[in-house]
Design brief:
single chain, 9 helices, Helix Hairpins, 79% helix, mainly alpha, 231 residues, extended, 2 domains, 0% strand
């Protein structure tokens, strides 16, 4: 057990080093000067993370055979472990557009979630999300439906006045999304009277749309904390 504990500590240190390397690599001057070092460090890190992933599959197979492997692979941390290494192999062995490669590099940040493997609070939070997943699916569906309705309504209200801005329902989805999220960047705004009235109503509805999943998750998390203390 001590060996496994030391291995976990080593993995945590490596994860932090990877995040630090990613931050430093974003500076062009540093990247150009130490490009080879960054590449070989990434290569070594991927090798270790790949070994860790296969090792955890092996351990789970020894404990519970294929049922244990399935449980790990499709678990939250199993998916995180895979996402942390998969983009590297896709980049190396699959011909991709350069822009897509830059997007894949963002998945390196997912390695930080591996730090939460031993966190009881994170495990409680994941359990809390799992217990209300059906409710969250419904609120997601409700949110998407509200966004679509809002985009359609603002298109018909504003298209004549701003045909270049609200050119279609799909183009109006951006406005509907930021309005319902109560962000309101102000880059696209209605100028007609009825458009402004509708936007005011949507902004108020957006508070409720955001509050519903927040309340569901908070209540579930509190319940899981209470249950864990009871046990």
């Amino acid at each position: 057990m001590k060996k496994f504990k030391r291995f976990d500590i080593f993995i945590y240190v490596l994860i932090i080093a990877n995040i630090l390397a990613m931050v430093l690599e974003s500076h062009v001057s540093i990247k150009l000067e130490y490009e080879n070092i960054f590449y070989y460090f990434e290569l070594i890190s991927i090798s270790i993370f790949s070994f860790e992933y296969l090792f955890r599959i092996y351990i789970n197979y020894k404990e519970s055979k294929w049922h244990g492997v399935k449980g790990y692979v499709f678990s939250f941390f199993g998916v995180i472990d895979l996402v942390a290494i998969l983009p590297f192999y896709i980049k190396e062995f699959v011909l991709l557009d350069g822009r897509f490669f830059r997007i894949l590099r963002l998945f390196r940040l997912s390695r930080i979630f591996k730090l939460g493997r031993s966190s009881k609070s994170l495990k409680l939070f994941i359990k809390a999300l799992g217990s209300v997943k059906n409710e969250l699916y419904f609120t997601l569906f409700l949110s998407l439906l509200t966004i679509l309705f809002s985009a359609s309504a603002i298109y018909f209200l504003e298209n004549d006045a701003q045909p270049e801005v609200f050119s279609s329902i799909t183009a109006s989805i951006w406005w509907a999304t930021v309005s319902l999220a109560t962000v309101g960047y102000g880059d696209i705004v209605p100028i007609t009277v009825w458009g402004k009235v509708f936007a005011s109503i949507i902004s108020l509805i957006g508070i409720g749309v955001v509050a519903i999943p927040t309340g569901i998750i908070s209540a579930s998390f509190v319940t899981e904390i209470f249950n864990s203390k009871e046990n």
